């Protein structure tokens, strides 16, 4: 019983040494062969294979691995065989090599960290001086998510045209979260957006949670302003999905705020009905249409500014011409100017 206990203890000790060798980077088989060579210096490949439960070919593979790690050398006493290098020599050198490799990796990591820090600083300086170009909707939405997440005072948005339902869904949750934190939200939509259910639902939800929503016949270009310190404007106003410019220059942000405040002051709160102009009998939308067409825009151009189709523009102009008693747009323009409508 006693000898069995000692045998079990010896096996456990040997297994423990093998595990320690594995921790140094040896494979399980190579660790077993190395341990067997230390325990049985005179064993040839066949005997080592029996001790380690490997094939002779497997032992040769392990010897190759051990030789690369400089843990075995050619035997002077037994030509054609290998001998194990004493652990205090071979393993110490192995650990020293690993420490040197680790030091080199740490030096490389430190250099990489310094390079990243410099790059981040350079990008911050570039953004501060010139603004940062964000290409594509993913980049735009990602930046807006970041800014809205840390917003502390106010979020301002100008939305010309009609937002797609997926774009509305992308900002819905983050706007509600900001409102819950006490951040003020003011959203300015084009009047044409009132006819679209998904936008109306979104706007009503904002109102219900403390946001402000107004509409106007024509609004400035798409803009997002966060905490009066960050502004995003489209790179190409004709295709806002191409990208945006993120600016932080106080002068630029202030100019965009001034433009927004002017449009906001004349816009109508959602839920209110814009009355006809008592002098002309025109709605605000019709007055803006006359102004745009009078400035030389085509039906398509005016429709884009108002967020409606050119077909709608023609229908609205026909209604205005009927009220003026005009048979052509040219005549309608003259009569509108005579009556002070332009």
UniProtKB/TrEMBL annotation:
It comes from the Bacteria. Residues 275-340 form the HTH luxR-type domain. GO terms for molecular function: DNA binding. One of its GO terms (biological process) is regulation of DNA-templated transcription. It holds the Pfam family GerE. CDD domains: LuxR_C_like. This is Regulatory protein, luxR family. The lineage of its organism: Bacteria, Bacillati, Actinomycetota, Actinomycetes, Kitasatosporales.
